[in-house]
Automatic annotation (TrEMBL):
EC category name: ligase
Descriptive protein name: 3'-phosphate/5'-hydroxy nucleic acid ligase
Reactions performed catalytically: a 3'-end 3'-phospho-ribonucleotide-RNA + a 5'-end dephospho-ribonucleoside-RNA + GTP = a ribonucleotidyl-ribonucleotide-RNA + GMP + diphosphate
Pfam family, one: RtcB
Cofactors that this protein relies on: Mn(2+)
Keywords: GTP-binding, Ligase, Manganese, Metal-binding, Nucleotide-binding, RNA repair
Annotated EC: 6.5.1.8
Domain of life according to the entry: Bacteria
Amino acid sequence: MDSPVFSETPLLKQLHGKAVQQLGTSGSGNHFVEFGSVRLYEGNELGYPGGEYLGLLSHSGSRGLGATVARHYTDLAQKDCLLPKHVQHLAWLDMNSDAGREYWLSMNLAGDYAKACHDQIHYHLSHYLGLDSILTVENHHNFAWREKGPNGEEVIVHRKGATPAAKGELGIIPGSMATNGYIVRGKGEASSLNSASHGAGRKMSRSKVKNCYTKSALNKYLSQERVTLIGGGVDEAPIAYKNIDEVMASQKELVDIIGEFKPMMVRMDKG
Ligand SMILES: Nc1nc2c(ncn2[C@@H]2O[C@H](COP(=O)(O)O)[C@@H](O)[C@H]2O)c(=O)[nH]1
Ligand SMILES: [Mn+2]
């Protein structure tokens, strides 16, 4: 929280206090913190034998800080870069403009802040339980990176619903609150811009699930799958998500699977 970047723009100065208050929280929507069982496959090349381990998986973002930064610079971009109404949300800022530079700085700060929130959650839970972590796998999603393009040129890669999967890079691709997630190692597939999906992804909107599924059906399913859910609502039921094994099969050129994570105790905000 003592990053000098917080003093670089009036907006970041203004957001610092709220960011301090929200540090270590994970927010609402489909953000979760869960304990589960990790099965590392033999030959995982992580330096650990294949077998069962306890895992702690968290998914959340940069809270009010990131949301306010995104809204502010999206408004600026939409005023500056005039596009037809149906594609207005794709408005951009010139990276060589003051607003573009400020946005880049602020977005990266929000990414670091999201990581700090996860670090706090993991630190507090493991400290409280008296456990030491032997391996942390962390990756950003819904973020942009400055990378080298296929011809060595500098490009900005936006990964929305996607996560980095450069050759050898570790990642975690969750399924749903009751299905497997997968620990993966990127294959560095250039045609996918060194990326993979960062989750199963939704197949049903929140309102659609609420109309066709009930809390008691969810509870029955979770008890069959031996998952304890604290908070959460039907809109986040596993039925709302695509089949993770089909998703993994369709991206086998992008990542190797080296282990799996089965959720057992899931904490979400109230549904
Ligand atoms: N292990 C869990 N995975 C979940 C849960 N709810 C959703 N998901 C998966 O995570 C990604 C996150 O996607 P995002 O686009 O919203 O960032 C999603 O695609 C699902 O596959 C859960 O409770 N536990
Ligand atoms: Mn997300």
